[in-house]
Each structure stands twice: as structure tokens, then as C-alpha cells.
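hey so i finaly got around to running the thing on TetR family transcriptional regulator from Allofournierella massiliensis. pasting the sequence first so u can double check i didnt mess up the copy paste, my clipboard has been acting weird all day
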Amino acid sequence: MPELLVIHDTRQKLWKIYEYSIDNTVKLTAPLLKAMILADMENGSGYFSALRCSKASESHLVQLQLIRKLVVQGQEEGVIRSDKDADLLITTYNAILMGMAPDWSSSHGKYNQKEYLKKMFDIIFS
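ok and heres what it spat out for the C-alpha cells, dont ask me to read them lol
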């Protein structure tokens, strides 16, 4: 994500990483995402778990490390709330992301999930 190199605001960098993931989810299309979620639930894989990252790919784990560094940095700069632990903020937002995925896919993608997720991002990381 070369865009990150030119963004100076830590909170905006954090949103850009999440936005990239959200955009890729939308590109999957709602029916494919729904099928992936159902398969994950049936197999108990935990790929769509906000709490269990043991099944995460290497690139996803690197992304999580970057997210954590940005949250901590943003807290130190005063642009991200510091009244809660960085890991709790990340887990909370990831739970929101994972919770919205089945809702959006079961609605056949008929609403702008990115718009809602941005509002929730602003609440969690204010």
C-alpha cells in the first residue's frame, strides 16, 4: 500500500489499512462472502473470528502488527483514544468488521457497509 507512505496522519493511515480490507471484501461480492462464512462456520476454522487469530495467514498477522503499532502511535500522539488498551480497541473494531460481514452478505450487499464501518471506526478510534 504505497499510499501509506504519503499519509502523515496516523489515524488516517490506520483507516487506510482497514479500508483496503473492506474494499477487498466488497470485491468478493456478497454471495461469495456468504459462502465463505458458512463454510468457515461449518468447519469451525475460525478464519472469520475477531478473537482467534491462530488461523490467520502470515500477511494477515503482519497487518495486525502494523495496525497495533499505528494504534499505539496514535494514542501517544493523542489522535486515538488512550483510555482503552490498544489491543481492546483493535479487537472491538475487528469484531464489528466480522459482525457486519454476515449481515452485509445476507442482505445481498444492498447497503454501503464501508460507510457504516467508517462511522464505527470513528467511534472506536476517536
